[in-house]
């Protein structure tokens, strides 16, 4: 088996263990293999090991990669989407994890309407209050959620967050629990289930699964290290 295949197996096993340990059905957690910076050949190796869902965070990098690989793979956009890239990105991706402002959501909705698409989106929340991060503030999202749910073309499926890096494993765990609690509150207030919780990366996906993640975005534990700034 390839190294990527072995890595995928270990990540899948760790997801199952974390889910079972938390009393969850492991099949409710989907693994998004984050292939950003890695070539199409790496995606093929993962495909050969049974992986069909991939995540990319840069439109320019992703489009040629997506085009060079077989149809039938599922591509998720996981990064910050610049508004001037929306038109190109919409047809390539089925789920957008990081919709981080009302402006981006509205522009996606308008362009989706013009092009006859109805993309699924997750709203990125800045739970930890870090200044450098993109995302809705929790209280801001409570004010905007009705407007977001009323957009006719984008379909809001849930929330996404990134935990800050910390030596203390309690930090990501508290961030993930806070996202789940915010989702529960927004779902009760809005009547929309917001069923998906995209949380957990290589360093913290097990904690995220214990706290209710339905989509883990794992890159380096599957494909190896990236150049540092990405
Ligand atoms: C790069 C990236 C990931 C994957 O990170 P790893 O630590 O390599 O698993 C997950 N989510 C987002 C939003 C990313 O940009």
Could you walk me through the main structural features you see in this protein, from its secondary elements to its overall organization?
There is one protein chain. With 230 residues, the chain is an alpha/beta fold. The chain contains 9 helices and 8 strands. The chain has helices at residues 3-21, 40-48, 59-68, 86-89, 102-115, 138-150, 170-190, 205-210, 220-223, and strands spanning 30-34, 53-56, 74-77, 95-99, 120-124, 155-160, 196-198, 215-218. An 8-stranded parallel β-sheet has the order 7-6-5-4-3-2-1-8. Strand 6 (155-160), helix 7 and strand 7 (196-198) form a beta-alpha-beta unit. The chain binds pyridoxal-5'-phosphate. Pyridoxal-5'-phosphate is lined by residues 34, 36, 57, 78-79, 162, 201-203, 217-221.
């Amino acid at each position: 088996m390839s190294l990527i295949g072995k890595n995928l197996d270990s990540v899948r096993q760790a997801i199952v263990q974390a889910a079972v340990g938390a009393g969850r059905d492991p099949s409710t957690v989907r693994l998004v293999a984050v292939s950003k910076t890695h070539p199409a050949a790496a995606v093929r190796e993962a495909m050969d090991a049974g992986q069909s869902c991939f995540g990319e965070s840069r439109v320019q990098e992703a489009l040629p990669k997506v085009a060079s690989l077989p149809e039938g793979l599922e591509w998720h956009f996981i990064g910050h989407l610049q508004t001037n890239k929306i038109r190109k990105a919409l047809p390539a991706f089925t789920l957008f994890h990081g919709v981080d402002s009302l402006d981006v959501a509205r522009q996606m909705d308008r362009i989706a309407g013009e092009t006859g698409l109805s993309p699924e989106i997750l709203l990125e929340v800045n739970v930890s209050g870090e200044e450098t991060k993109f995302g809705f503030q929790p209280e801001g999202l409570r004010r905007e959620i009705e407007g977001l749910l009323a957009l006719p073309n984008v379909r809001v499926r849930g929330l996404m967050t990134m935990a800050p890096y910390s030596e203390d494993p309690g930090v990501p765990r508290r961030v993930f629990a806070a996202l789940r609690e915010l989702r529960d509150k927004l779902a009760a207030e809005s009547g929309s289930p917001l069923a998906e919780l995209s949380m957990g990366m290589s360093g913290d996906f097990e904690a995220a699964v214990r706290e209710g993640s339905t989509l883990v975005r794992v890159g380096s534990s599957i494909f190896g290290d990236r150049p540092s700034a990405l």
